[in-house]
Amino acid sequence: MTSFHLHPNILCCALLLTTEPCIRAENTAPPRSSASDSRGLLAEQVDRNVAEGTRTMAAVTAQAGQLDAGTRAELQALAEFVRSAEHRLRRSLRTLQNASAEEWPRARATFAASYETYAQAVAQAEQLVATNASLARNSD
Description:
Blueprint: H1 10-16, H2 35-62, H3 69-98, H4 104-139
């Protein structure tokens, strides 16, 4: 199983986005990188990362049959938490995308926290299965 890795700069991107358009130089075509374009790129990256998280969770839950009952129950609870965290992440992303200048700091902080919670939950589920598999191999 491959490790779940989210784009390392996604939180950085979310924290650095501004609501101001990029400065345009005289006699050049307008840049494609306005604040709304940046928000769109952020949404695309989050979608890719959530898709990767979904693939990771599918791989992790596919191994549930090899786990003892207690670990399976823990994995099920984590899987439910991941789904909930994904919904909160998507909601906070929508809020961030639609935030006015006044709403931006709070929306940005909420998104960053949601993203971190989601990433940690997926990584925790993956680690649970990896640790259990390692313990099972060592006990053989």
